[in-house]
Amino acid sequence: MRTVFNFNARWAFAKHVNEVPSTMPTDWYWVNLPHCWNNIDGQDGGNDYYRGTCYYAKSFEKAELPETDRYYLEINGANSSADVYLNGENLAHHDGGYSTWRVDITDHIKNENLLVIAVDNSANDKVYPQTADFTFYGGLYRNVNIICCNESHFDLEYYGGPGIAVTPEIVGSDAKVKIQTYLTNAKEGQSINYTISDAQGNVIATALSADVEVELEIKNVHLWHGRKDPYLYTATAELVDDEKVIDNVTTKFGCRTFKIDPENGFILNGEEYPLRGVSRHQDRWGLGNALLPEHHKEDMDFIYEVGATTIRLAHYQHDQYFYDLCDEYGMVVWAEIPYISKHMANGRENTISQMKELITQNYNHPSIVVWGLSNEITMGGEDDPDLLENHHILNDLCHDMDKTRPTTMACITMCSMDAEYVQIPDVVSYNHYFGWYGGDTSMNGHWFDKFHAKYPNIHIFCSEYGCEALNWHTSNPMQGDYTEEYQAFYHEELIKQLFTRKYMWATHVWNMFDFGADARAEGGENGQNHKGLMTFDRKYKKDSFYAYKAWLSDDPFVHICGKRYVDRVEDTTKVTVYSNLPEVELFANGVSLGKQTSDVHFFYFDVPNTGVTQLKAVAGDFTDESIIKKVDTFNEDYRLKEKGAILNWFDIETPEGYFSLNDKLSDIMASEGGKMLFAGLMAKIMSQMGNNGAAAGFDLTPDMMQMMGGFTVLRLTSLMGAANVNFTKEQLLDLNAKLNQIKKP
């Protein structure tokens, strides 16, 4: 019988080493796995986190391991490339930082052994990801095991798979379950004992066969039905030799049907089942990717609390334990590989191997319904023949490996809905940030209506949308201010637009949690993307968390927004309350401000602001409380001050009735003087960008110009740094002075 021997304890670690050691190092650091070397410098900003090769070394005696025929080293995550050395011999190389892979070390083990794993997250042009808005943490950040098994065993080497694949097919009230196993060094006379057990552990179907594929039947099958009823069966295969079980594998699986309808959305087991949920990055503050099971479990509990029915597991393969949790909690999952942002001509083989690993290792999870081919890969253009061919290859590969699930991909806003690229997968999605990166919130729903009207038979949904919020506050939220209040407003608007369009079969908020992005310098706290509904450390649920809970969760609650926004200068202030109950009453110092009903779960009260006011919201049997306080001057602790910014918005001259850098480009362009001023400015910008008027690979189409019009001039100029168009303080002040001469209509 196989034994899994955990190998996490006591590794020597070194960052700046030039060669593989021949003896156990005595001057390295001692670490236990999981371990990540960018857990600090990958989250503090500056885009200067260490990317290179680091070494892990561990000595062991063969006598420490169980006596057996074969020994396999199992690595569950080494980002992003790794080499395995045993007693100085290079046994294996692996490219891809998010999947399981194994190495047969049997013939190389001695009585005394030195195991060294060199892990490399340095920049290159062949292993994805290389360009993306998140940190590529280095390390042995998941478990490392030694699997001890018989000479004859269920396969351990084919793309890190479990050696068993289960494919249920619903037939009437029953299920036919095909179980496929994969054997290594099988011998004549051996057989396989197949069993299926129900959730209570009762064996309900069995077969003893010499074949590696059998079909069993489940009578009156209990369906896996998402959050409502995530029922799981267990399939077990035992390899039998001379009536003795010499190896076994087991997997949980679920029986369900699903389809995606271009008008009615996601259909689960014949019922409409709207997919409304979140995306998740796996990292944490101070840990990087080196998560423990309790961290994964806590993440799932928060996602479950918000009421999500679906999770997009971005932008890579996640820990097997988290896929297990998705099965158990009833989440419907999009799983994808990190083919992201920048197509690399030398990276094709890596996309293929990472896709094979993703599907092989995750085929049995009932939670997974789509395989993701890529994310925003057309940043450099959508017509590259090599990029298109790469996608066709991946799309065909998915269909060859899995006949039961469709393919999808996430397109960037600027990708034309008419592009050949958009037609490749079975279903398609877009990442749209109207109301944050240009445009305004009202543009989101209209864009999808336009797509649906033009291509009514293409299954369309929204794979990303969101905006950033930190502990900044205002009573007059504006796009780009990074306040918790604007994020709440943004999500209120997006919820009302996206959730009411049934043809949009899925929506995924970007993101459930803030996450590490060391290149970022936004919002006053560098090194993070702050679009999460919760903070990076999982300690604070932003108000927008409760906006989704009000729409999605059945657990009754009431929540007063703005608890961190206490000091307020206005005489009457707006207080927003979220609840999934139909009626809310708000009290100020014990005096009722009235009852409100709402069919959108959002309630808005005008509250007199004098002295200190104790607020209490009541909805049914549930209450929530907060405090506001009248102040004479605005509390500067609530105002964003960009670190390293050439200009902050409050440093800009804004004469009443005249334009400034703080006005939206669309408003300025609506005036004759503004149009003339920016005609010359845009010509200068285009000349700096080159490409005959293309902005970072995107043509300045009317749609793109409309999106850009939603930016203030100051924010637009700051974002242009990504296209190598930079403005000095003097240039911006000169532009502001010219705008100050143009009267608003």
Count of helical segments? 12
Low-pLDDT runs = 691-698
Total strands: 46
Distance between the termini: 81 Å
Whole-number count of domains: 5
Strand content: 25-35%
Could you name the CATH topology of the largest domain? Answer: TIM Barrel
Indicate the overall shape.
Answer: globular
Strand order of the largest sheet: 33-32-31-30-29-28-27-34
Instruction: Specify the CATH class of the largest domain.
Output: Alpha Beta
| Architecture (CATH level 2) name of the largest domain | Alpha-Beta Barrel
> Roughly how many Å is the radius of gyration?
28 Å
Helix content: 10-25%
Query: Structural class per helix/strand content?
Result: alpha+beta
Provide an overview of this structure:
The chain has 745 residues and is an alpha+beta fold. The chain has twelve helices and 46 strands. Helix 3 packs parallel to helix 4 and helix 6 (484-498) runs parallel beside helix 7. It is globular, with a radius of gyration of 28 Å. The chain starts with a strand and ends in a 6-residue tail after the last helix.
Task: Give the tags.
745 residues; alpha+beta; Jelly Rolls; Immunoglobulin-like; TIM Barrel; eight-stranded parallel sheet; 19% helix; globular
List the helices and strands and how they pair.
Layout: E1 3-6, E2 11-14, E3 29-31, E4 53-61, E5 70-75, E6 78-79, E7 81-86, E8 89-95, E9 101-104, E10 112-120, E11 139-140, E12 144-149, E13 153-154, E14 164-171, E15 174-181, E16 183-184, E17 191-197, E18 203-209, E19 213-218, E20 224-225, E21 229-230, E22 233-241, E23 244-253, E24 258-261, E25 265-268, E26 271-272, E27 275-280, H1 293-306, E28 310-313, H2 320-329, E29 332-336, H3 348-362, E30 368-375, H4 385-401, E31 407-412, E32 428-431, H5 443-454, E33 460-464, H6 484-498, E34 506-509, E35 515-516, E36 528-529, H7 543-552, E37 558-560, E38 567-568, E39 572-579, E40 583-588, E41 591-597, E42 602-608, E43 612-619, E44 622-630, H8 665-669, H9 672-689, E45 694-695, E46 698-699, H10 702-708, H11 713-719, H12 729-739
Parallel strand pairs: 27-28, 27-34, 28-29, 29-30, 30-31, 31-32, 32-33, 38-44
Antiparallel strand pairs: 1-12, 2-3, 2-4, 4-10, 5-9, 5-12, 6-11, 7-8, 7-10, 13-16, 14-15, 15-19, 17-18, 17-22, 20-21, 22-23, 24-25, 25-26, 35-36, 37-39, 39-42, 40-41, 40-43, 43-44, 45-46
Helix pairs in contact: 1-2, 3-4, 6-7
